[in-house]
Amino acid sequence: MDDNIQISETTTSNIKKADKFESLSHWQLMKRRFFRHRLAVISLGILTLFYIVAIFAGFFAPFSTRARNVSLQTAPPQTINFFDEDGNFHLRPFIYGMERTLDMQTYQSVYEIDYEEKQKLYFFNRGEEYNLLGLFSTDIHLFGIEEDEMFYLMGADRLGRDLFSRIIHGSRISLSIGFVGVIISLILGLSLGGISAMFGGLADIVIQRIIEILLSLPRIPLWMALSASLPPGWSPIQVYFAITIILSLITWTNVARIARGKFLSLKDEDFVEAARAAGATEWYNIVHHLIPNFFSYVLVQLTLSIPAMIIGETALSFLGIGLRPPVVSWGVLLEQAQRMQIVAMHPWLLLPAIFVILTVLCFNFVGDGLRDAADPYSD
Asked: Is the distance from CB of 332 to CB of 2 less than 8 angstroms?
């Protein structure tokens, strides 16, 4: 008897859970399933942090992209300390100074820690003036030192510029180029994929052949050829948008194929026929009925396309045919690490690559989470 009561209570509980599950919308089900993917949620948090830092780069970066100290060229990273050389604890963090000497055997600069010089770190410190979001000027930074001197948390480049600050400023270009390119890819993919499916005939044949040709071309050589054709006299803004368009012209093909397949599978469904019978036009059906039913799958594809665009920009800038100085991006920063001899002596010049790898991994994990969440009824 007790077993029957327990089974009845379990069945009732399952029915209630099923009713609650079915009462949720598709987007609510996606959200619920996505947040069960722990790795995707952690990756989304890291990406959110990266984009916040990129938006407020002037506040988080201690120095501008052009600030330098020629007496500390290729200086190694400095560590933040709470304990001094005698083991005494200091409540305020500090950084030891550096002394530069010349090795007479190798004629290379050698840096030694100057324990007599302590540079104290202060939060919300005043430093170089910058424009916050392009709205107003301020000189408040997240942290810095009182003295008007450079310090290097991630080392210095060959011109004595702070690599940590340049990585933060470079994130603006490297992280935004993916989103700008995705918007262009989304517009091209949905438009051409929809035309191909809804009109068929010659339009479908031409669009599909163009897609097949673009997919058959090797991406890196194609990017290199298109980037090399850019006029050398263009401004950094013109080059930025040109690189974005070049990357978008390759990635829209996958979105178009997904859109075409979904349009073909949904355009004859009962709810679409009912809308036609009620007098709805084809464009109304596309915007209000077809696209919302498969946009989650397109969103997954776009999320997985952003890393490809980031890698594409980094590769082109690394090879010197993409963005060029004075523009700062992660690829431009990595251009200094092309020679193995330089990397062997100054390995911190490869630190921008770590941020590229971490960003690409996070986007892939978020894409995996969205791909699982796009089908919330799978289990």
From this structure: no
Positive/negative CA dihedral, 225, 226, 231, 234: negative
Closest CA to 94 of 68, 65, 71, 115: 115
In this structure, which amino acid lies at residue 164?
F
Is 227's pLDDT higher than 60? yes
What's phi and psi for 163, nearest 5 deg?
Answer: -70, -35
Q: What angle do CA 170, 174, 177 make, to 5 degrees?
A: 135
Asked whether the CA dihedral 353, 355, 361, 367 is positive or negative, the reply is: negative
Q: Hey, which bits of 43-108 come out as E strands?
A: 81-83, 89-102
**Measured distance CA(117)–CA(113) in Å, rounded:** 9
Say if CB 150 and CB 73 are below 8 A apart. no
The pair phi, psi for residue 281, each rounded to 5°, is -80, 170
Among 232, 230, 239, 188, which Cα is nearest to 210's? 188
Token duo for residue 306 = 């952003």
Which helix (H) or strand (E) segment is 118 a member of? strand 109-132
- The three-class DSSP label of residue 162 is strand
- For the chain, domain boundaries: 43-55+167-373, 72-160
Question: For 43-59, what is each residue's pLDDT tens digit?
Answer: 999 999 999 999 999 99
What residue type is assigned to position 167 of the chain?
I
Q: Residue 161, Cβ neighbours under 10 Å: how many?
A: 24
Beta bridge partners of 68: 161
Is 54 in contact with 133 (CB distance < 8 Å)? Answer: no
- Both structure tokens of 274: 């009912």
| Residue 370 contacts residue 34 (beta carbons within 8 Å) | yes
Whether domain 43-55+167-373 has CATH 3.100.10.10: the reply is: no
Give every strand in the sheet of 89-102, ordered side by side. Answer: 81-83, 89-102, 109-132, 136-145
Q: Specify the residue for token string 């009732």.
A: 12
Closest CA to 270 of 298, 289, 295, 294: 289
Instruction: Give the sign of the dihedral formed by CA 361, CA 363, CA 369, CA 375.
Output: negative
CB 156 within 8 A of CB 162: yes
Digit-coded pLDDT (tens) for 15-49: 445 455 456 666 677 778 888 888 989 999 999 99
What pLDDT does residue 375 have? 63
